Amino acid sequence: MDDWLIYRGVGAPDPDRIRRLPPPPPWRAFSGEPLPGAAPPIDSSSTRRLGARVAAPPAQDAEALELINAALYLRRPLLVTGEPGSGKSTLAHSVAYELGLGRVLQWPIVSRTELKDGLYSYDAIGRLQDAQLAERQSDDIGRYIRLGPLGTALLPAERPRVLLIDELDKSDIDLPNDLLNVVEEGEFALPELERMADRPGHDEVRVLTDDGRRVPVRDGRVRCHAFPFVVMTSNGERDFPAPLLRRCIHLHLDPPRDERLAAMVQAHFGAGADELNLDLIGQFTREDGDGELRPTDQLLNAIFLTQHAVREEPGRREEIAELLIRPLDTRQR
């Protein structure tokens, strides 16, 4: 395996490799003063997706690994496209796990999502209510400000955080364009804090982060130090503007098959599980040849269920699996 690869997709933690990442190119260097402290460790959201991560073949092919590492080296977002179940979202968790980058910050996108939802929120009503109860306005405005997943990812840190912007194609037409400046500049302003920055004692305000920490923000601006590893996923429901595409590394993931499929089964069911379930894997891949949409979640469900439902009746494994391995677009009759 090429030694220049920082992330290798081997399914085992190797946090020392992130120290081999060279400095960014001059046009992607950022000036934020690093904050002390490490990111929170990965949580159940990652462990659910990754499984036990037993020793297994690489989870991505050579071209995918090169593109993932290109995003790391160039400090550019990774735009990942592919069918549902192809491993787009799991990729962000795999990088965070293998490189020891801490909890994945997740920003699920819906049609009503705006840029500010990802940056921060300000609870002006809560501050007003507290001021009325106390008969005076609290000076601790930071209690009412919470950074969103994108805002938290842009905090200055020694090591990049991992940010998953999931299903960006679900957004309205404005969000991809609105992301451009933040992605390019690696910083943003909080006007509520900027207005107070010249007051004595308010040049630094501690605010709450998306992952539950309290961190200082100086002069009302968040400036990143290590640009986050940003994974933007899309199911291909819409096209994106050329300026956004120019700022991203594009990776298309095909549904996992062969070694990738074996690695996924081993990760969730243990070493050798792919060999024990060759019949179901073969059934799943044979069905896949008809061109219908079958996410790999269906195979995992079939393996799990047959372990319990037909433990004493192995002849019914294929029948039970057939109930679950159906194309998503099959109409109910």
Key attributes of the depicted protein:
333 residues, alpha/beta, 5-stranded parallel sheet, two-stranded antiparallel sheet, 14 helices, 11 strands
**Relative strand content:** 5-15%
Distance between the termini: 50 Å
Overall shape: it is elongated
Computed over alpha carbons, the radius of gyration is 23 Å
Write out the strand line-up for the largest beta sheet, numbering strands in chain order: 2-5-10-1-11
* Tally of alpha and pi helices: 14
Low-confidence stretches: none
Question: Mean pLDDT score, rounded?
Answer: 87
Q: Which structural class should the secondary elements be placed in?
A: alpha/beta
Number of strands: 11
Q: Mind summarizing the main beta sheet? A: 5 strands, parallel
Helical fraction: 25-40%
Q: Give, in order, the helices and strands.
A: HHEHEHEHEHEHEHEEEEHEHHHHH
Architecture overview:
A hairpin with a 5-residue loop joins strand 7 (204-208) and strand 8 (214-218). Helix 13 (297-309) runs antiparallel to helix 14. The chain has helices at 44-50, 62-74, 88-99, 115-119, 124-134, 149-153, 175-185, 191-194, 242-246, 259-269, 273-276, 278-288, 297-309, 317-324, and strands at 78-81, 105-108, 120-122, 145-147, 162-166, 187-189, 204-208, 214-218, 221-223, 229-234, 249-252. The protein has 14 helices and 11 strands. The radius of gyration is 23 Å and the shape is elongated. It has 333 residues and is α/β, with parallel strands linked by helices. It has a 5-stranded parallel beta sheet. A two-stranded antiparallel sheet has the order 3-4. The model has no long low-confidence stretch (mean pLDDT 87).
